[in-house]
Amino acid sequence: MPLSTTALIALLVIISLMLAAAVAWRAAHMRAPVDQVLTFGALILLPGFAMWASFTQHMASSETTRFCLSCHVMHNYGKSLYINDPSFIPAKHFQNHWVPQNKACFTCHTDYTMFGDYRAKLRGLRHVYVEYFGKVPSPNKIKLYTPYNNRECLHCHAGARNFEEAKGHHKKPGMMAAIQANRLSCLNSNCHEFIHDRTGIAQDPIWKGAAADAAANGLPKGVWK
Amino acid sequence: MSVAKSRLRWAALLICAGLIVFLATLFSVHPLYFIAYAMIGCPLVLLGMFFYLAALWADRKEKLEPESPSRRAG
C-alpha cells in the first residue's frame, strides 16, 4: 500500500484514539441520550472503521516479498530469486520483473495462508508459531501441502501466443489440454523443473546485482548472502 | 459512579488500548505484528465495544428502576 494510504489509516486510528480517550476521561459526566450519539461514534463507528482499515493494511503488507522473507526459514527462497541461471523459473521471473518484485511469492503462491481457505489460514498461524517457538524443519523437509497447481502459472500464461504455440507444449496430442486441466504439471522433469533449488541453493551462483536489488526492495539482510 | 458510567469508562479504556496496538503494528511488515494486531488489538477493541453495549443496557435499567443515591454513592 502506498505510504500515504498508510498515513491516512494512522490518522484515522489517532482520531479514533483521541475520541475514545475523551470518553474515558469524561465518562462520569456523560449523559444519555445526548452523549449517546458521541459515544456511539467514538466507541463503535470509529474504532470499527479503524479496525477494518488496519486490517486492509495488514492484508496488503502480508502480500509483500519482504513479509514472506521476514521468517528466517524462508531466506533461501529469497536467495533463490537471485540465482544467476535463467533455467530457474522464479529467479528469471523475479530478475526480469515478470512477476512484481514487491509481491513475488504471492504472485506464484496465491493460496498461501490468508489467501487460501481456512485450513491454509490455520497453517499460516502454525508456521509463525513454529518459526519462533517450535522446531523449524530442515530445508529439505519443507514442501508444499498439495502439488503445485498449474493454475498459478496459467493465470499469466494461458492464452498467450508464445505459450499456446510453444513447440514443447505440443509434443504429444492432447498435451495442451492436459496442461490446462492440471493433469500434466508444468514442473515435470524436462519441462520447467528448476524452481527454488532448496537443497542445492548454497552452491548456486548468485547474480552480482543481487545485493543492490535486494536492498532496493527492502528485503532482509541475509537473503542474498 | 453508576454501573453504566463505569462500564462506559471501561469500554473507552479497552478501545484505547486496542487502538494503541493498531497504531503500533500499522507500519510494520512482519508476521508477528500482524499476530499482535489480530490477537491483541482486535480482541481489545471488540471487548470494549461489548462493554459499551453493556453500558447502554445498564443505563436503560437504571432509568427504569432508579436506585437510591445513598446505595450508589461514589
Count of discrete structural domains of chain B:
1
Q: Spell the H/E element sequence of chain B.
A: HHH
What is the N-to-C succession of helices and strands of chain A?
HHHHHHHHHHH
What's the helix count of chain A? Answer: 11
Radius of gyration of chain B: 17 Å
Q: Fraction of residues of chain A in helices? A: 40-55%
Largest interface: A-B, 40 and 38 residues
- The end-to-end distance of chain A, rounded to whole angstroms, is 28 Å
Distance linking N and C termini of chain B: 6 Å
User: Overall mean pLDDT score of chain B?
Assistant: 88
What is the general shape of chain B?
A: rod-shaped
Structural class of chain A: mainly alpha
Tell me the fraction of residues in β-strands of chain A, as a range: under 5%
Return the average pLDDT of chain A rounded to an integer: 91
Main β-sheet description of chain B: none
Please tell me about this protein's structure.
The complex is a heterodimer of chains A (225) and B (74). With 225 residues, chain A is an all-alpha fold. Chain A folds into 3 domains: 5-61, no CATH class; 65-148 and 187-223, no CATH class; 153-184, no CATH class. Chain A has 11 helices and no strands. Chain A has helices at residues 3-26, 34-62, 65-68, 75-80, 89-95, 104-108, 118-133, 151-157, 161-164, 175-180, 210-216. In chain A, 26% of the residues are buried. The mean pLDDT of chain A is 91. Chain B is an all-alpha fold and 74 residues long. Chain B has one domain (3-62). Helices cover 84% and strands 0% of the residues of chain B. Chain B contains 3 helices and no strands. In chain B, helix 1 runs antiparallel to helix 2. The termini of chain B are close together. The mean pLDDT of chain B is 88. Chains A and B meet through helix 1, helix 2 and helix 7 of A and helix 1 and helix 2 of B.
